[in-house]
Amino acid sequence: MKFIQYIGGIFTALRSLAGGMIVTWKELLTPKVTMEYPENRKTLVISDRWRSELIMPHDENNEHACTACGICMINCPNGTIQVTSSSIDTEDGKKKKILDKHLWDYGSCTFCNLCVITCPSDAIIFNNDFEGALFDRSKLLHRLNHEGSKLRDRKKEASTLDTSAKKENKEA
Amino acid sequence: MLIYSQPLELTKLLAAIDNFLQGHLSPGWAVPVKGILVGILLLAAYAIIALALIYIERKVAAFFQARLGPNRLGKYGTIQSLADMIKILIKEVIHIRKADKLLFYAAPFFVIVASVLAFGALPFGINLHALDFNIGVFYLLAVSSLGIIGILLAGWSSNNKYSMIGAMRSGAQFISYELSAGFSLMTIVVLSGSMQFSEIIEGQRYCWNLFNGHLPAMIAFVIYLISGHAETNRGPFDLPEAESELTAGYHTEYSGLQFSFFYLSEYLNMFIVAAVAATVFLGGWMPVQIKGWEAFNQVMWYIPSWAWFFGKAGLLMFFSLWVRWSFPRLRIDLLLNLEWKYLLPINLANLLVMVVIVLSGFTLTDLFPALFGK
Amino acid sequence: MNNRDETDKTMMDITQIIQRIAPDAQIEERQKLTVTVKPGQLHRVVEALYRNEELPFDYLVSLTGMDWGETLGVIYQFSSSADLTQEVVIMTATADRENPLLYSITDFYETAHLNEREVYALFGIRFINNPDMRRFLLNDQWKGFPFRKDYKHDAGLNPVTVISSEIVDLAPCIRETAGGKLIEENNPVFDAEDYIVNIGPQHPSTHGVMHFRTSLDGEIVKKVDVHSGYIHRGIEKLCESMTYPQMLHLTDRLDYLSANINRHALCICIEKAAEIEVPERALYIRTIMDELQRISSHLLAWATHCNDLGATTAFIYGMREREHILDIFDKTCGGRLIINQNVVGGVMFDLYPDFQKDVKAFIPYMRGRLKEYDNFFSHNAIALGRMVHIGLLSREDAISYGVTGPAGRASGWSCDVRRYKPYALYDRVEFKEIVRTEGDSYARYLNRLNEIAESLHIIEQLIDNIPSGEICAKVKPIIRVPAGQFFQSVETGKGEFGVFIESNGDKNPYRVKFRSPSLSAVSVIPLICKGAFLSDLIGITGSMDFVIPDIDR
What we know:
Chain A is an alpha+beta fold.
């Protein structure tokens, strides 16, 4: 009886092992799903919502939507954003805050998206330009507003804001 | 022996070189020069086969694992191994402060010398045989067992607990499986009545030993593959290295060239096991021959004998890779169980059965001399 | 209704028991039944709860150190293994800030060992009769107690050193003699002639920077000493300086394999406290995403477990399937590992148009793969030899060590939070709780594979019925949680993950504590690995499936 069990055990074991080998054999002949990255750059699809780099969309007039309110800076959990502003006198004699510099540190961002969802004027978004490797750490500090840009007049182009943002996103 | 036309065979080339040396050197010089040439050739073949095997293993493993494997260097990554070799040659050899210096540096040489000695005794093709002893099988078993000394020394002299555990595991494993490997080869020696590789191959002209000895031979074949696999520390038997347990086992502390000695010998040992199995069970370099089918035999001889040899060994190596990348690792007690409770008793019984079969004339060549007889 | 009455009745009994032992205990009905006792009475109250025959409170859910300004204390959260809905919170505090001493409850709850050591490291409270009062998470040389409110952040106080110091295997301990005298002593952790191997902190199979000091007898493990804290980031402390929405992104970095589920727990906790109603659609999205996350977590657990047993091919197979889920996450929320989906009041991103199609395609694909896994590994003779009857964990030990999740259920303890304390949509879907009684590595292994199948079943029930509507409730820009203590538990891939928030009504929490399922899983390793082979130590840790950042927090 024991002997039969002994022999039976050998065959059960061999059968189970063969089962495993059949699975690997099938995989051997299956086309591989590996993406070969630098070669497939042209066809690579990154999801629209992929968050890689914070940008401030500017339209063709070099205008952005940031009012320098600093909410993004306050909301950032680890101090990645620095907004500096200065106040100017507008034509009608009122004091107005304008954006000097919107600095964002790529190196310490955790991509939690809190700045984007809390921004009252939808001035910043994440693009999906994922190739962010750099040789110099200091280059991680991005200035988001372009040189010489200014605040877009809200009333003028409230409706086109969305489309221009998307366009910018694609271009980036 | 029938002589067929063998256009791709290396026999003529070798004969030409031999004649050239004999003609230009005194007999006292020709032999040592020939010896050196053979040695260089063997070493070169050793390195090239190992590099090729590393590439093949990586590629095959990748395909078993839903990956592509090396594909950056050269077309399909073909020169990856070469690049790795260059890298490993220029790598720093790290000196371990508290290691036993002498043994630490000697250990890799034990391993690689043992495997080169075994490699040198393989019959690669017709006349492609550096040594054709009358005790070839015995010699091969003896020299390939030397490698374990290197592994034990490496583990002990590294002064590293992981290495030590790895080496001890290796010792237990090697000594156990050496028995099985030896007995299964003995089974075939009983069948073919010789320990000389050339005779064993010649005896398999019309019927491989695997079929000639039918059931006991097949059992011996399976056991030899298992124990050979275990001796090379690969596949489910890689306990001495056991990456997920011992980081790298006995060669944890080795780097650069010294590490590459272990690495190369691992792959070459795999080749040696496959080659011995191919020679002893599958007819070695002997092409497939069927008695009476002269035309067919003629065609088969067009394929050179070394291609047959490497083809058969390659098939067995592929099988070894397949096994390696399919199974989890055994634990040391399971490993020893397998050997002492299963393989060894089966093997002993098998040897006895083989003796009975040979003595009572139940081998295929004895039963059907018209089909398989010499 | 009946059930509710019964619950009230047992709770009445409990208050009576407590009052009998500690007449001056303060008993309040807060979110949970909360009892404040004097330090001297704590041990007896806990003992009475533990030995309560009708409903023994034998499961210590969490042990939270507290600094209330003037007093230092501990909040214990107890539950009953038979019925996880029964919960008692016991608080105790001592006014002695120089040398705070409390009684240890390690004699009842094994899980208290590491938790008390953690409280000692972070708050400086020492526990009398705990046999091992080394600091956990912090090193022995650390000056000060960082979680105290009066701790000064000063880089000069605890400089970063590049020289590694010798590990001292001496465990200080305060023991109370029969006469009531306290004596301090040092117990050696290992014998002098033990052969000690460091497994970790850099080791391929500890799944991160875990450090097991292991004493071996040949290949046999004699004792394992758990060292952790190599990735301690003080997330709980960090949370105290953050607003509630800011805190969320840290939860993803605890158990990163169950990132979404952890975040879900914190969101529910805040929502319940601040009384925010979550829209229906958001509940659907949260539940589906949680189940996808659970599948991916179990897949990785399966893959790494197989890898630990030497089957590297299985590792890649698991990763291959997980990739499909990560792609779905990526398309939904723009993240793969850290997906930032839940926010207070709902979810951040709506589903993308093809979400249902992708998920529906994934379900049959994954079912096919589960069959393949069975053929490939589950019946493999070698794998069986490596898992069956290895790492046996009894039900009692599982409860005492607080081992929940697939590992706890493999020991016969029905402990699925989704069933006992349903959140999101778990009370509306039908699913089987997978419970096995073997308690070995193989049971844990099979439990995970079966739970993947169950998760697929849950998703199948929800995927076609996602209602339209809002994805996030309107919440004020600055969320304030009313003063009080709030608890929330969820079932992550590893087990019961708990969130505790104590709030002063401010926009920052006063204290946050995360109950880590991995900490329990790792605390039981010394028990179940004793006498096992070294190879099995690796296999067993793989079967327990812990994530180091979740332990260290």
